[in-house]
Write a structure and sequence with these properties.
The protein is an alpha+beta fold. It has a domain of 52 residues. It contains six helices and four strands. A four-stranded mixed β-sheet has the order 1-2-4-3, with helices on one face. Helix 5 crosses helix 6. The longest helix is centred in the middle third of the chain and has 17 residues.
């Protein structure tokens, strides 16, 4: 509050004016500073504002010990075995002439089909495991023996000709045995002729 000038423009107040001014100055309270205006909508806008969440970064020490997922192993597809090849003619002549020995043989003649099939599989696997390459399989020619005239003919008896002779080549070409067999051919007469087969086996891996 500014102190007023005296009467007649004087700078100093007389006694009465000075007392009045002092009393007035003591009773006057200073003006309060204006408060800034606050709108409630501002708080709602702040609350509604989306919060951006930051993903904590992995500490270097922990990152070293993080579990590493190994890459998936690619399993190569198994290739199909090659088809049965033609039997080597020179090798067949040497076997027939005895220049190449037959390393193993099996006689399936007289067996039932299921017995002969199982026996053939065991025989060829065993021969390959022994590194035997040239083997003989006797199937029989499939001829029916002359009927005994004293025995009455029975129409109910099933007589099949050359069942094993037909089935053994088919079995050799099946997926179970084809990986073992390189080739086969009809044997020489001294080894069974049309009722036997020379079989060339692959080397075991």
């Amino acid at each position: 509050m500014k102190k007023p000038a005296g009467k007649g423009g004087r700078k100093h107040l007389d006694g009465d004016d000075h007392d009045v001014w002092s009393h007035t100055a003591q009773s006057v309270e200073p003006l309060k500073k204006a408060k800034g205006r606050h709108h409630p909508a501002a708080d709602r806008m702040i609350e509604a504002a989306p919060r951006i969440l930051t993903k904590p970064s992995i500490e270097p020490a922990k990152a070293k010990h993080a579990t590493k997922v190994p890459p998936a192993k690619v399993v190569p597809a198994r290739s199909a075995p090659p088809p049965i090849a033609d039997f080597d003619r020179k090798k067949a002549r040497k076997i027939r002439s005895g220049q190449v020995d037959i390393e193993a043989r099996i006689d399936l003649h007289g067996m039932r089909q299921d017995e002969a099939h199982a026996a053939l599989i065991r025989f060829l696997h065993r021969c390959q495991s022994k590194e035997q390459r040239w083997v003989l399989v006797i199937t029989g020619k499939g001829k029916i023996a002359d009927r005994d005239p004293d025995v009455p003919f029975d129409m109910t008896v099933r007589r099949e000709r050359g069942v094993l002779k037909r089935n053994v080549p088919r079995w050799l070409d099946e997926p179970e045995l084809r990986p073992l067999v390189v080739s086969y051919t009809t044997a020489a007469i001294q080894h069974g002729g049309e009722g036997a087969l020379y079989i060339h086996l692959r080397k075991s891996r």
